[in-house]
Design brief:
Number of strands: 20
Low-confidence stretches: none
Number of helices: 3
Number of domains: 4
Shape: rod-shaped
């Protein structure tokens, strides 16, 4: 028994369009979209007995899983998407590399600028030592200079994290004895950033004065002396006048004992004083009192 082979009609897309026949209902024809490969049928059309070839939809077979240069060959959406994603990845990697190099260059430029034309910032507070547990107004001041000129007005200045204008600010502070209050300044100008800090210290009062030869150290007598805000046991006094009198110095005990007392000629006179301990306002104090009354003018005493 002889076998029969049925062959579907096939041609290039260009030839089909040139003839443009009406295909029979359910007639399937093969289409080669690439005229250079007339025997490679990669699409088909199915007739309905009414419409011409050009009016029927072109149905594709499995698409090529890769991109290519053909203008008519169908392509895989997956392959195209993956190719686009791969290209995006390469572009992002390139952009990241450029950004990193740009940052490096920018950092190098800033470092060079800072080395050649640094941003000089001065920051100060006055007074820097205040009486303990007493509200005191301190004056903060700052300035910024670059390339020999004042740039304070053009710079961005932050004081304790808040933007400020001008170059001064008064602030009320209350600091405990031996406590501190720190202020932080940040100045930014032309990409350069400089930070500075200032500290205010709190201290109990120091008392100093000349007294009579019969003066006795007690709380009331010490509080009657001149009150000073020093914050250390170091103190220098000049122009002291005595008429058969003594010199008295009292300060918080936690500042330590004196190591030296010198006169204006540099002679050590620590042994000429008597040290005692007194409670003043509930705090322990050292009191140094000149032991022997003297009569003199223009006396200098350097305590350290």
């Amino acid at each position: 028994m002889a076998s029969s082979i049925f062959k579907q009609r096939g041609d290039t897309l260009a030839n089909w369009l040139r003839v443009d026949p009406v295909l029979h209902e359910r007639e399937v024809v093969l289409v080669a979209t690439d005229s250079a490969k007339a025997d490679e049928y990669n699409c088909r059309k199915v007739g309905d007995g009414k419409r011409k070839f050009s009016e029927l939809p072109l149905l594709g077979y499995d698409c090529l899983p890769a991109t290519g240069t053909s203008a008519t060959q169908p392509m895989s959406q997956k392959a195209t998407t993956e190719a686009i994603k791969a290209q995006d990845t390469k572009l992002n990697d390139l952009k990241r590399s450029v950004d990193e190099k740009t940052l490096t260059v920018d950092a190098d430029i800033l470092a060079l600028q800072n080395a050649v034309w640094p941003l000089d910032v001065a920051f100060a507070v006055a007074p820097s030592v205040v009486k303990a547990d007493t509200q005191t107004t301190v004056a903060l001041s700052w300035s910024a200079r670059r390339k020999g000129g004042d740039v304070t007005a053009q710079a961005a200045v932050e004081l304790d994290g808040s933007l400020v204008s001008g170059n001064t600010k008064n602030v009320a502070v209350t600091v405990a004895h031996a406590g501190t209050r720190q202020f932080a300044l940040k100045v930014s100008f032309e990409g350069l950033i400089v930070t500075r800090t200032c500290t205010v210290r709190g201290t109990l009062p120091t008392y100093f004065g000349t007294v009579s030869g019969t003066w006795a150290a007690n709380e009331a007598a010490i509080k009657a002396l001149t009150e000073l805000t020093v914050g250390s046991r170091a103190l220098s006094r000049t122009g002291i006048a005595l008429n058969d009198g003594k010199i008295a110095l009292a300060y918080p005990k936690d500042l330590g004992v004196l190591a030296s007392i010198k006169d204006g000629n540099g002679y050590e006179v620590l042994s000429s004083y008597t040290r005692s301990e007194i409670r003043v306002n509930g705090n322990d104090y050292y009191c140094y009192l000149l032991t022997v009354p003297v009569t003199a003018t223009g006396v200098t005493q350097i305590y350290s």
